[in-house]
Write a structure and sequence with these properties.
The chain is mainly β. It is built from 4 helices and 25 strands.
C-alpha cells in the first residue's frame, strides 16, 4: 500500500514547489515524473519501513526543465515552456502482476513568489507577474512587458492621456485562460494607437463580463536621451519580464588577447580573442521599487541590454549591491555580451539621399 502524505497544490511555482512525502509497506517503489505525458525521470526508492516517510524534492529539477523566452515582435507571446503540467506516478513493485499504483498531478510556473504553502491561484488570477506594480516612468523607446497567467479569458484595455489633455480608451489585446502570456506594452506601440503625443497610459484586463480582473498598471512617458539612457530587460522571479533604465555614465572597454607561437624563428600571431566589457552606472536609485527591480535584475540569469536597436543577452560580473539607508545610492554594473561577435562595434552606415 502506498499513502501520499504531502503533495504540491494544484498550481505552484517551481522554486517554491513543496516536497512530496509518501509511505509504503512495499520493499521497493518506482517513482516516475511525466511532463505533459513525457517521462522525465524514473527512480526506485526503498522505504525504511511502513511508517517512515520518503521525502522527494524535485523543485530544482522542474525549475531547470522550464524556460521563459524573451518576447519577439508579436504583441502577445505565449510562454509554453514557462508553465507545465506534471504527473507523479508511484508504482509498488513487490508484486509485478498486480502492482500498487498512486498518481498525483499539478501545474508549475517557472519562478518564485514566496515560500509555499500559499494561494498561487488567487495571486496569478488577479495580478500581473511583474516586480514593478506601482506607477512607473518609462522612456519613449523603452521595451516594457507585462506577464499574466489568467484563470479566465481576458480583454486587455489601455486608457491613454495625451499632452493636449485629450484621452482615449482602446482594446489592446486578448489573453487566453490558463496560459502564461507576455504582453508587449512598450510606449512606442501604445503611441501608434493615436496621432496625439502620448503622456501617460494605463493597462488593465477585464473579464468577458466587463469586470476588472488584472489590476491597473500606470506608465508615464518621458523623453529618451540616447546619450544617457540605457535599457535593460530581465526575466523576473515571477515568470515574466521587467525592464528599467540606467542613466549613469557608460564605459566601453575593448580588449584583444592574442595567441602567439614561434614559427621559423618568427613570433607569429595566429589567433585573436577580442572581448568587450561594459561598465554602466545605474544613476541614483529613485525609489523602493527601483531598488527591487535592480535586486531582481542582479539575481536573474536571463538579462538583456538594448544595443544597436536590439536586446542582447549579457553576463553580469559580481553584481554586488550595497544599499545604505537614508542615503543616495548608485552602483556600477559590469557586464559582457553573451554573443562574442558583439565585441566588434557596429559599423555606421552612410546616409542615403534621394536624388531628384
Amino acid at each position: 500500500m502506498i499513502k501520499i502524505l504531502k503533495k504540491p497544490a494544484a498550481l505552484n511555482y517551481t522554486k517554491s514547489l513543496p516536497h512530496i512525502e509518501f509511505t509504503s509497506d512495499e520493499a521497493e517503489v518506482m517513482v516516475k515524473i511525466l511532463d505533459d505525458g513525457v517521462e522525465l525521470i524514473s527512480e526506485r526508492y526503498n522505504p525504511f519501513n511502513a511508517t517512515t516517510p520518503v521525502v522527494l524534492k524535485f523543485a530544482g529539477l522542474l525549475h531547470g526543465n522550464q524556460n521563459i523566452i524573451i518576447p519577439g515582435a508579436d504583441r502577445v507571446t505565449v510562454q509554453d515552456q514557462g508553465v507545465r503540467t506534471y504527473t507523479v506516478q508511484f508504482i509498488g513493485e513487490d508484486t509485478f502482476e498486480d502492482p500498487t499504483f498512486e498518481e498525483i498531478s499539478f501545474v508549475a510556473i517557472k519562478g518564485f513568489y514566496y515560500r509555499q504553502p500559499l494561494d498561487i491561484e488567487f495571486y496569478t488570477a488577479y495580478n500581473w507577474l511583474n516586480i514593478g506594480i506601482l506607477p512607473q516612468s518609462v522612456k519613449t523607446h523603452q521595451p516594457v512587458y507585462l506577464t499574466a497567467y489568467p484563470a479566465e479569458p481576458i480583454t486587455v484595455k489601455v486608457d491613454c492621456i495625451y499632452e493636449g489633455g485629450t484621452t482615449g480608451t482602446f482594446e489592446y489585446a486578448k489573453l487566453s485562460a490558463d496560459k502564461l502570456q507576455t504582453l508587449d506594452v512598450s510606449p512606442y506601440l501604445v503611441q501608434q494607437l493615436s496621432f496625439d503625443k502620448l503622456a501617460q497610459y494605463t493597462i488593465y484586463g477585464n473579464s468577458s463580463a466587463g469586470k476588472l480582473v488584472l489590476r491597473k498598471q500606470v506608465f508615464s512617458v518621458e523623453h529618451f536621451n540616447p546619450l544617457i539612457h540605457d535599457f535593460f530587460v530581465f526575466e523576473n522571479r515571477l515568470g515574466g519580464f521587467d525592464s528599467f533604465v540606467m542613466s549613469g555614465e557608460l564605459k566601453d572597454t575593448f580588449k584583444n588577447n592574442p595567441s602567439n607561437a614561434l614559427f621559423d624563428d618568427h613570433v607569429v600571431e595566429y589567433a585573436t580573442n577580442p572581448t568587450r566589457t561594459v561598465l554602466k552606472n545605474t544613476g541614483y536609485i529613485q525609489s523602493r521599487q527601483h531598488r527591487q527591480l535592480l535586486v531582481d535584475f542582479s539575481f536573474s540569469i536571463n538579462r538583456y541590454h538594448m544595443l544597436d536597436g536590439a536586446l542582447r543577452k549579457i553576463n553580469v560580473k559580481d553584481s554586488t549591491l550595497d544599499f545604505t539607508r537614508n542615503n543616495l545610492n548608485e552602483f556600477d554594473i559590469e557586464f559582457s555580451y553573451s554573443d562574442s561577435i558583439l565585441a566588434y562595434p557596429q559599423i555606421e552606415q552612410a546616409p542615403n539621399f534621394l536624388k531628384i
